[in-house]
Design a protein that fits this description.
By secondary structure, the protein is an alpha/beta fold. The chain has a single domain, classed as 3-Layer(aba) Sandwich (Aminopeptidase), CATH 3.40.630.30. It contains 5 helices and 7 strands; from the N terminus they run ααββββββαβαα. The strands form 2 sheets. It has a 5-stranded mixed beta sheet. The protein has a two-stranded antiparallel ribbon with strand order 2-3. The longest helix is centred in the first third of the chain and has 15 residues. The chain is globular and about 55 Å long. The chain starts with a helix and ends in a 6-residue tail after the last helix. One of its GO terms (molecular function) is N-acetyltransferase activity.
């Protein structure tokens, strides 16, 4: 199974409109790092090395939604997480995308509903994701299905040179 080219291309075009310098993914890198396995296969593809912590070969999962005619029009890219506060597993939605021409037809809801059902089936604690502050249409949609803003939390990230420096042996200053 592969990432439908037009779906990926449109998703990157939409993302680059606001975040052009942040998008490093290509169709090839996505295909090589996403597990296209059926949902619910926890722990599939673990690799072990003497010198490294065990890590999933393809930690992300992807589900697609299709029109009745069989055309892929949306995707949800996600991974499993764990909440120490709830002592339960969950799902973190990394990316939800529905083609612009297919929005407001229930496809985004179907993708989120599928993930919610998976969380409930594994007796999980929550389904969570981040949304850019400027994306008001998405925020309104998420709130309409019961999602709550987490105003007490601040997103943090280490990437690029800061990540390499943090991973190194030296002292970070």
């Amino acid at each position: 199974m592969g990432l439908p080219h037009r779906l990926h291309q449109q998703g990157v075009e939409d993302a680059t409109e606001h975040e052009s310098d942040s998008v490093l993914a290509t169709e090839e890198t996505l295909l090589n790092t996403i597990a296209w396995a059926p949902p619910g296969t926890l722990g599939a593809g673990l690799r072990h090395s003497r010198d490294r912590v065990a890590f999933p070969a393809r930690p992300s999962r992807c589900i697609l939604v299709f029109t009745p005619e069989g055309v892929a029009v949306g995707m949800a890219l996600y991974f499993y997480n764990y909440s120490t506060w709830r002592a339960k597993p969950g799902i973190y939605l990394e990316d939800l995308y529905v083609k612009l021409s297919e929005r407001k037809r229930g496809y985004g809801f179907m993708l989120l509903q599928h993930l919610a059902r998976e969380v409930v089936a594994m007796d999980g604690g929550r389904l969570e994701w981040s949304v850019l502050k400027w994306n008001e249409p998405s925020i309104k949609f998420y709130e309409s299905i019961g999602a709550k803003r987490m105003d007490d939390w601040v997103g943090m990230r280490v990437d690029g040179e800061a990540l390499v420096k943090l991973a190194g042996d030296g002292v970070f200053q």
